[in-house]
């Protein structure tokens, strides 16, 4: 049975102070502006400028005195008035076009009293064209004083306004504190300001320049950002705007930095704006109601049966419990906000009806309204509430019954058999476990809060996925849509066990959209370059274990499906080959041996080399980098051997030095390999300092000479002092001395000489002093000097 909407009378206004004046103003003036205090106890009525007295009336429900103000001719009435959500006492602020602001309070002593009066525009001459009072702030749009010479061009005059803000907070029991003014926007067109509970909407007016009249701004003070949206273009951008940090924006500069916003568009034809907790509702002249959300997105809510006729007709919009209420003249239409379906249409007895703002959360009346459900309407006849009532004869099914009934319809649509599924069959059949699991949750095994916490991420992903599918079907931004869809699907598959169909699906995504798939992997592994040509990751070990998993030893991937690690290596070879070696090196640091392979398995560098192709067909540079970065002795020696064959001596020496002293045996093997080349030719002479640094510290000079002797070229021919023309110069003692000094300096003995070659290393380099000699006498040829003749005198 269909539910019905009922108008319930809450008050005939007799319990409000000044009830007679309240009914009179509501019945006499259709243009009166009505506001309700956050606690629901006060009603404010403000008549437009030029209306007969009184122009302001504040009525109180229950005990309390009303506030009634009138301004004589020549003294303009306030531009707007707002209640302030102060918890201590009720308060309101009045703002004039001249920039005068008055704060009034009640609750301290009898009646209302003026708490503070100040000028919003201290410079004078400026005119306030719009004002709003979001929580704890006062925001206004002001127009600068007109130029005395009147020489301002029309284009400059169209962007001459600015939007300013001041904090407004209570101070003690009898005062208020109005902060310093701060400019949010300057050089902007005139805006109308509409405040909801969390956001402030800056919407274009009738005088806004047509080129920017399709743009609106949404300022979120709690998030410290402003969203620039063009709903007709489906564009929205966010920028930082925090007055606490001194942020301010030039409107023209802001738009120039956001591409696509200034595309030629027809200005909006909006009849009515209405801020709500869900966002900003707007009604156009075709009767279509749309919702602009705080992030800038816009969606159509529904279309009214009756469209507004011209600007003169009155209209009011509001929401309650997923229902849109629209009062157009004397007609009330209720639409479902999810489907846009018309739920009910009522004809009211008057066309002067005002929808009141929702009550502040936490108030007693608000809790009562929420339990009964409803939206408040105010007219001269009284204060009413729109509520939904179900007939007493209607028996609502239990949550478990609803689960199995919906599951029957779902499975029946997917089933190929002709037999009809029944809820009883689903209850007894263990094949369909999802409805049984959900029914057990609804029976109370899991609390609703725990269930919501568990499913929040899944529901958010599912909702965004459905929105993305609808966008792709509509053909909007297909390239970006496919990219986002691939990223979401890769992220979903990484949360599953990558076996069989999941791995095959992942291979398909990488083949179709490799860039988008790699972007999802970057976020999952949290990969970042460290500035030294290496990669670092902050992903947990479980993610890396899934990435490094492979097939068992000796088994090829089924049907050509690559494991995830090989898939990533293949993708990197296509997109950024230079990052493949750092990625493999990082993977070797992260994972244990044979993760996910059921055994030891091949090392990761071999798995990466297998992706590059067969030996001899691989890119030489990538193969060298993978071998050198593997850390395996055989692989490093293989790489150094390839470098030696190519004559890249400096790279070979640096590869050995990069191992450090943690691999002495591997360094010693590389040194011996290069020493053999040093003994046979002179191409390493220019890199002798690096070869000396690579020399093992425990190598003795004798061992060095024996190694050299082993690799010296055959000396079958007698040595010559100079080499033949074109022949390789032989190894000389001068070249060998640096190596001998390197080995001898580390093994200098403190006792007697240990080797017959080591004495030349400790030779100080200067001969001993010459002993003094005396006069010598000539000897005869026949004389044979004795031993005493050589003694010094």
From TrEMBL:
Segments forming domain BLOC-2 complex member HPS6 N-terminal: 1-386
Keyword field: Cytoplasm, Endoplasmic reticulum, Endosome, Membrane, Microsome
Region (Disordered): 758-793
Gene Ontology cellular-component annotations: BLOC-2 complex; early endosome membrane; endoplasmic reticulum; lysosomal membrane
InterPro entries reported for this sequence: BLOC-2_complex_Hps6_subunit, HPS6_C, HPS6_N
Domain of life: Eukaryota
Biased composition (Pro residues): 765-775
GO biological process terms held by the UniProt record: blood coagulation; lysosome localization; protein localization to membrane
Pfam families on file: HPS6, HPS6_C
Keyword Cytoplasm belongs to the record: yes
Record's subcellular location: Microsome membrane
Domain BLOC-2 complex member HPS6 C-terminal, residue spans: 401-773
Protein task: May regulate the synthesis and function of lysosomes and of highly specialized organelles, such as melanosomes and platelet dense granules.
Subunit structure: Component of the biogenesis of lysosome-related organelles complex-2 (or BLOC2) composed of HPS3, HPS5 and HPS6. Interacts with HPS5 and HPS3. Interacts with biogenesis of lysosome-related organelles complex-1 (BLOC1). Interacts with AP-3 complex.
Name listed for the protein in its UniProt record: Hermansky-Pudlak syndrome 6 protein homolog
Source species: Myotis myotis
């Amino acid at each position: 049975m269909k539910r019905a909407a009922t108008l319930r009378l809450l008050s005939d206004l007799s319990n409000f102070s000044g009830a007679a004046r309240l009914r009179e103003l509501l019945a006499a003036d259709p243009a009166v502006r009505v506001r309700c205090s956050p606690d629901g106890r006060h009603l404010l009525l403000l008549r437009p400028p030029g209306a007969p007295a009184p122009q302001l009336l504040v009525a109180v429900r229950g005990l309390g005195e009303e506030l009634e103000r009138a301004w004589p001719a020549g003294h303009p009435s306030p531009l707007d008035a707002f209640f302030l959500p102060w918890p201590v006492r009720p308060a309101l602020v009045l703002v004039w076009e001249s920039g005068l602001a008055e704060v009034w309070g009640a609750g301290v002593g009898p009646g209302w009293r003026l708490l503070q009066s100040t000028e919003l525009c201290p410079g004078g001459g400026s005119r306030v064209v719009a004002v709003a009072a979001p929580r704890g702030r006062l925001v206004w749009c002001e127009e600068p004083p007109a130029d005395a010479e009147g020489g301002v061009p029309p284009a400059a005059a169209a962007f001459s306004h600015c939007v300013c803000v001041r904090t407004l907070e209570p101070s003690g029991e009898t005062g208020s504190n109005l902060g310093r003014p701060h400019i949010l926007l300057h050089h902007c067109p005139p805006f109308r300001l509409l405040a909801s509970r969390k956001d402030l909407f800056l919407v274009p007016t009738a005088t806004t320049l047509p080129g920017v009249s399709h743009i609106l701004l949404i300022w979120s003070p709690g998030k410290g950002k402003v969203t620039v949206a063009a709903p007709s273009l489906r564009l929205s951008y966010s920028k930082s705007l925090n007055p606490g940090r001194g942020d301010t924006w030039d409107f023209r500069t802001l738009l120039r930095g956001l591409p696509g916003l200034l595309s030629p568009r027809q200005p909006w034809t909006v009849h009515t704006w209405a801020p709500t907790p869900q966002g900003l509702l707007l009604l156009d002249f075709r009767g279509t109601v749309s919702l602009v959300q705080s992030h800038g997105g816009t969606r159509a809510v529904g279309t009214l049966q009756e469209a507004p006729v011209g600007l003169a007709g009155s209209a009011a919009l509001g929401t309650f419990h997923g229902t849109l209420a629209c009062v157009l003249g004397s007609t009330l239409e209720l639409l479902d906000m999810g489907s846009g379906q018309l739920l009910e249409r009522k004809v009211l007895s008057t066309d002067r009806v005002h929808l009141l703002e929702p009550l502040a959360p936490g108030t007693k009346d608000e809790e009562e309204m929420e339990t009964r459900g409803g939206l408040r309407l105010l007219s001269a006849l009284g204060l009413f509430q729109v509520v939904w009532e179900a007939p007493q004869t209607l028996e609502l099914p239990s949550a478990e019954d609803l689960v199995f009934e919906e599951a029957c319809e779902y499975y029946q649509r997917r089933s190929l058999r002709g037999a009809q599924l029944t809820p009883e069959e689903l209850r007894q059949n263990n094949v369909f476990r999802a409805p049984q699991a959900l029914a057990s949750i609804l029976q109370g095994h899991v609390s609703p809060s725990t269930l919501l916490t568990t499913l929040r991420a899944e529901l958010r992903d599912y909702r965004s996925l459905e929105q993305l599918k609808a966008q792709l079907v509509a053909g909007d931004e297909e390239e970006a849509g496919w990219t986002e869809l691939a990223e979401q699907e890769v992220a979903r598959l990484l949360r599953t066990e990558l076996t069989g169909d999941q791995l095959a699906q992942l291979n398909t995504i990488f083949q179709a959209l490799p860039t988008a798939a790699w972007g999802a992997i970057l976020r999952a592994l949290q990969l970042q370059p460290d500035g030294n040509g290496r990669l670092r990751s902050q992903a947990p070990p479980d993610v890396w274990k899934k990435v490094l998993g492979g097939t068992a030893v000796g088994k090829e991937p089924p049907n050509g499906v690559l494991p995830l690690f090989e898939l990533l290596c293949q993708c990197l070879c296509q997109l950024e080959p230079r990052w493949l070696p750092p990625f493999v090196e990082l993977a070797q640091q992260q994972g244990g041996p044979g993760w996910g392979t059921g055994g030891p398995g091949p090392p990761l560098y071999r798995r990466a080399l297998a992706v590059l192709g067969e030996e001899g067909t691989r890119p030489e540079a990538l193969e060298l980098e993978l071998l050198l970065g593997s850390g395996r002795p055989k692989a490093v020696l293989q790489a150094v051997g390839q470098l030696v064959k190519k004559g890249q001596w400096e790279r070979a020496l640096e590869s050995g030095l990069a191992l450090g002293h943690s691999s002495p045996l591997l360094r010693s093997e590389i040194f011996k390999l290069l020493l053999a080349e040093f003994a046979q030719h002179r191409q390493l002479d220019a890199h002798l300092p690096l070869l000396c640094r690579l020399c093992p510290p425990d190598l003795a000079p004798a061992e060095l000479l024996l190694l050299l002797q082993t690799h010296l070229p055959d000396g079958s021919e007698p040595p010559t002092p100079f080499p033949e023309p074109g022949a390789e110069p032989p190894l000389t003692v001068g070249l060998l001395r640096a190596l001998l000094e390197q080995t001898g300096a580390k093994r200098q003995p403190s006792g007697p000489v240990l080797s017959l070659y080591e004495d030349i290393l400790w030779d100080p380099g200067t001969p001993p002093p010459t002993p003094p000699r005396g006069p010598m006498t000539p000897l005869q040829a026949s004389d044979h000097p004795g031993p005493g003749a050589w003694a010094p005198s």
